[in-house]
Amino acid sequence: MAEVCMKSALLAGLVLLVSLLSAFGLGVFSSEADSVEPAMAEFAVQGMTCGSCVGTIKDALGQLEGIESVDIVVTTGRSQVLYDPDKLAAEKIAATISASGFPATVNLTLSSEEYQQLQSEESRLAEQYLARIGTRLVPREDFEQRLAWSLGSLQLTGASEDAARQQARTSLWQEIRQREVLLAAAESNQVVVSPGEVNLRLEELKTSTPDFSAAVQAQYGGLDAFTQRLREDLIISRNIEEHVVAGIANPLEQRRKVNQWYQELSRQTPVIIYDQQLKQATTTSGSSCGGGCCSS
């Protein structure tokens, strides 16, 4: 019974594992369609650094009968494998990945029925949300509104408009992803800022920024959205000051510490992108390693 309860809780939070495509190095292997409903296993894979590592693992798993698909995210070291449970076990898959040179352990397994439930949940969420970052959902409407604001001042047509829109979508996604990861870290430390602190900083910006109202309207759609963004910035900064670089006086050492902390935080935060267009854009921009950095 304890195992059933644990899996039920995981199903609620594991939408992030289905079709997991990322801007930082994703490889996919697919086999012919099979009438058997697949099971799913998630693995923690060590030692990957680029797309060549992904290719090595794909080649190894491609030799196994019963593999349906493999999704690998280099940044987090997470791998999701769909497989025929009548032909394979998760432990065999982990052993095959490890034998290819990248130690792997089983994080989670879902039966065929559990995996189908997970897919249904993802489809439901995809109607309203662009992605999930950790436990935080990114509303599709908010994303598209911010994208429209960022593109509003550009005078583009035809192919140039399409290219600019795709680049803007990718850039906005990376910004949102980073912000949500940082806000989640601040929330876990229960960091808060007072309304007075936000208002004080707002008045400083009004005084120091030419055409403040016009700039806020153009970039954020209004003062309320900008004030919320400012509040989040102050929370993120306070969290870093109090919980990451506290006691470190050297600016270079502070930057090194923050970078190290964020990289680890990013690796630990699971992400799933529901939007197919954004999946394609981020995968195209981030999946290539540009060389055989880990080839033997």
Mind describing the biggest β-sheet? 5 strands, antiparallel
Shape: globular
- Please provide the ordered H/E string of secondary-structure elements: HEEHEEHEHEEHHHHHHEH
- Determine the mean pLDDT: 80
Would you mind describing this structure in some detail?
This protein is α+β, with helices and mostly antiparallel strands and 296 residues long. The protein has two domains: 2-125, 2-Layer Sandwich (Alpha-Beta Plaits), CATH 3.30.70; 141-269, no CATH class. It is 55% helix and 15% strand. The strands form two sheets. Strands 1-3-4-2-5 form a five-stranded antiparallel beta sheet. β6 (129-133) and β7 (136-139) form a beta hairpin. α5 crosses α6, α6 crosses α11 and α7 (195-208) crosses α9. The longest helix is centred in the middle third of the chain and has 31 residues, at 158-188. The radius of gyration is 22 Å and the shape is globular. The protein starts with a helix and ends in a 10-residue tail after the last helix. The model is unreliable at 1-34 (pLDDT under 50).
Q: Which helices and strands, and how do they pair?
A:
Blueprint: H1 2-13, E1 26-30, E2 39-45, H2 51-61, E3 67-73, E4 78-83, H3 90-99, E5 104-110, H4 112-126, E6 129-133, E7 136-139, H5 140-151, H6 158-188, H7 195-208, H8 212-220, H9 223-243, H10 251-268, E8 271-273, H11 276-286
Antiparallel strand pairs: 1-3, 2-4, 2-5, 3-4, 6-7, 6-8
Helix pairs in contact: 5-6, 6-9, 6-11, 7-9
